[in-house]
Amino acid sequence: MKLITNGIKGTEDVLPGESYKWQFVEDIMRKQAQCYGFKEIRTPVFEHTELFNRSVGDTTDVVQKEMYTFTTKGGESVTLRPEGTAGAARAMLEHGVYNDGYPIKAYYLTSCYRYEKPQKGRQREFHQFGMEVYGAPSFFADAEVICAARSIFDRLGVKNLRLELNSIGCEKCRPNYHKALREYFESKKDQLCETCLSRLDRNPMRILDCKSPICSEIAAGAPTVLDYICDDCKEHFEGVKDCLKTAGLEFEVNPQIVRGLDYYTRTVFEFVSDDIGAQGTVCGGGRYDGLIEELGGQHTPSLGFGMGIERLLLLLESQKIEIPEPPVCDLYVVGIGDKAKLKAFDIIEGVRAASLTAEGDIVGRSIKAQMKYADKIKARFSMVIGDTELENNSAKLRRMDDGTEKIVPLDENFFSEFFGAYVECNNSKLLEQLEFMK
Ligand code: ATP
Ligand code: MG
What we know:
The protein has 16 helices and 16 strands. The chain is α+β, with helices and mostly antiparallel strands. It folds into two domains: 19-173 and 229-318, Bira Bifunctional Protein, Domain 2 (BirA Bifunctional Protein, domain 2, 2-Layer Sandwich), CATH 3.30.930.10; 331-437, Anticodon-binding domain (Rossmann fold).
């Protein structure tokens, strides 16, 4: 088969046989978001480019190398969102959501676009679940979002995830640290990559996040941010740690974490796994107290995280975590002859109206092929309607797993008979599924 084109490099399709995994994970994310008092926000896939330049930061890899930016027919520069925070913050400000009072707690489930080298766990279109809190200076907020992220992993049964934590200071103490970093990197200037050289003056912390092996090696010997943070930042960091300890969340302080986006202040964190290869960071986040001012709003201490859904699914797969398959077909009805086919159609629609799954032939299969198909889609029950059944106004309802049959009327009483048989054959797994779907 020669197609005129294929999907774009670095993008992935979620096919009908796989989508239940996404839905399962997303359902848990939505549920946990609800438990923590977050409401969904949906923003456009593209924004004015300057929004990301300002918020993500123009010395970051994302802005310097990874954005999908283009000029519209009207001459505007727009960019496909590389992350979810900037759009959410912009929308919150533009619509004056803050007038309803703080905190504002919002979550998003969204696609993101970054022009990166595609590899395992790294695509050009990927998906994030993210949580955002605006107007919450307390360290309890930091602990709350970290616990919320953790709760999703726990609900999914993910194991061996490391929570790594750091504080990268605030606008008061950051200049001292920048000065120390500059002095350190100046002495290794001849070994740094081009991009890092250009960052040395404007934002030396970015060098700590460089993926080039030589820069990372140099960065490993750089002064540690925790030695430079001010007393307020220290107190805040201690508060976060105390909350996490109280909640029984294990963590490691990793002074190397600075995060890839410019807007972070104070707390930064990552959930990292060793089970999915080089791209092991499944979730990253932290505090961004200066972001809202950067976008033209009032000073609004804020924080949040982004969780990569593809990486999370890779993790579930590598840890062999079972995702319940979607409900199978409850009833398959075969109709033989035009009249019986109409009757079958009517019954199928009735079962669907009662929120169960029913199927009949829509591709023109023979009766034998239909029975085979009913088996293949794991129909719980099947029924054949022909002339005799129409005449007697009854048919044999067949339970597919053990072959037992039961005569059922083909009038309005069919439904109560069918539901009776259905409830009888219910197993615990199905009940579990129904429970989950509620
Ligand atoms: P990395 O260091 O792996 O490039 P990042 O610091 O750029 O990650 P963030 O901007 O913090 O990542 O995004 C949050 C999460 O989104 C990441 O932890 C990861 O799970 C996911 N993510 C980021 N970029 C990609 C990508 N290109 N493909 C798939 N998932 C991604
Ligand atoms: Mg990145």
